[in-house]
Structures are given as C-alpha cells and as structure tokens.
Amino acid sequence: MASNPLSPGSLAGIMAASLPKADGSAVKDPYDALALFCHTCMMAVGFRLKGLGEDHRIEENQDAQDSPALPAEWNASAPSYAFRYAHSQSSMEFLVKISRLGSKAVIFAIGLGDEKTASFDVPVKDYVSSDTLPVSADASPDSLQSVFPSIPDLATLFKTNIIQKLVPGLNKPGYEEAVSTSTSSRQTESGRPNPHSPQPHIPGPANPYPFHDPLAQPPRRPLPTGDFPPPGFEDEYEINRPLRNFPPSGRNPLNIGHDDLYPPGLGPHDPLRGTLGPGAGGIGGGGMHPTFDDPLFRGGGQGRPNDGRYVAFYRG
Questions:
Q1: What is the pLDDT of residue 301?
Q2: DSSP helix, strand, coil percent of the chain (3-state; round to 5)
Q3: Lowest-confidence range among 50-54, 101-105, 123-127, 190-194?
Q4: Could you tell me if residue 169 is left (phi over 0), alpha (psi between -120 and 50 degrees) or otherwise beta?
Q5: How many whole angstroms separate alpha carbon 247 and alpha carbon 300?
Q6: How far apart are CA 56 and CA 83, in angstroms?
Q7: Which of 105, 90, 106 is nearest to 166 (CA)?
Q8: Contact 292, 309 (CB under 8 A)
Q9: Is 48 helix (H, G, I), strand (E, B) or coil?
C-alpha cells in the first residue's frame, strides 16, 4: 500500500529538496516557511512548478520540471509569494499566492482556464514555530519538520481548501480526499459554489404555521348531521322563542331605525313607498318614530292605537 504523500516525513523530505542551494538563510521568517510548505504540498501530489507568478517561466527542460527545487528568487517579494503549476491530470495551469494579512497568512488559488478560485487563511503563529527560524539552505528534513509543530493539521487544511477545490478527484497513490471542515474556506465559480465540493445543508423555507406545534389548538370535530342532530340546551331566557303578542309580518320588528337613512320629511303617503326602501310592500315603517300600523302597537296593524293609546312592548 502506497504511503500518504502528505505525511510529515514525506513533506519534510520534499521541503529539504526544494530549498535553493545558495549561501545565506533560505527560510528567514514564518511567512517564508508557510510559502515553502504550500509549495511542498503541491509538489507532493504531482504538480509541476512552471514559474513564479503568471508571467515568470522556469527554463523548459525535463529536469527542471520534475525537480521540486525553487528558483533562488522565490522569496524576493516576501511577504507575498506566487507559484504557477501544471498537472498531468488537467490541461490548465494553476496559480497559488500566499500573502500576509496582519498576523495571518491568506492562501489564494485559481485555475487559469475555468477561473475557479479557492482560498483560506491561517494564524501563522499557530502553525509555524518562530523559535526555529531562520533555516539555512542545507537544513536537514528533521530540522525543517521541527519548524511546523502540526504538519498533519496544516496539510489537511491545504488539501481540503486548495488541492481538492482545484483538481477534484485527483488520482495519486496514497492520496485520499477529505471532507471540508474549515469555516474560513470559500470557493466561487462565476459567483456559484463549486458543484464538485461538498455543499453545506441548506434548510428549507420557514413554515409560518408549524406542522407539529404542541401549542396549536386541535381541529374541531364536525357537527353530527342526519339522524343525529346536535343536542339542545335549556333556553332559560327564551332567547330562541318567537316574540309573543306580535302578529306575523314580513319584517323583523327589531329592525327599528333603518328607514332613517332615507331623506326626512316624507309622510306616510310617500309616493316612493312601495318602490324604494326596506318598507316597500310591507306594513309600517322602519324609522325611529313608528306609525300606528307598526306591529309594536296593539291591534294587529289596523292603522290606529288601541283605546286611543299606543303601548309598545319592550322585552326586558
């Protein structure tokens, strides 16, 4: 079984081979160290260094393409770094940039062709031990490994947020993709999420009336029909009993006052009566001052009060 190309031992060996063999300190500060680590991860999974930045190109020969060695000017623009790569499983080139942002380092990457981008940031002090720096160009793999107190965690972050986003499903012996757990990573493709990367769960729209609300009132049972009418109740105050001592008529004697909505001053011989208004075709009026033919008087609507007086019945 092939070993993991992003294991601490494998990465430390590639870092030692990547340092240019020149006089002086090859890794001067934590940002140099982090840029070297990112380059090492790319080389470990089969990427080939093509140049520093978009326009710079390394001499085209087989040895230069296969070697992980960096050009002598790889950190000349520190604390900003840029590396351009190619991979045998893709026809595109890929640009990786590392920049300092306060106490953090931000790693950007883009596919030069589909414009797919990826990025994440890390607090440098959590992943690089400043006490071990600077490091000379002839440093051993063990010395370089001691610069990074948590190589597995840093390698997983880079793999999840950069490698898997640039080349999903990359085929490399011993290499396995991981599920993204970084909350600071982000990737866009023309403003849309990468369809190949795991997407977070998106909840559905809010329901204004919960289906399982424990406080909701249960629906009422329908009233029985047919042979089982609803049970009655004792009408103690005779609410449902018809009015007594009133002759039957076509109007409700309690609708007193509705004729007051019509123009005032029209007597009982209104020429419009019988054609307009609620009293049309019936007996009596509907105003606040009822006439003698109103059912409120005794006599059954004969046009005169009983015994020269009119008495209204009130229900109290």
A1: 45
A2: 20, 15, 65
A3: 190-194
A4: left
A5: 6
A6: 9
A7: 90
A8: no
A9: strand
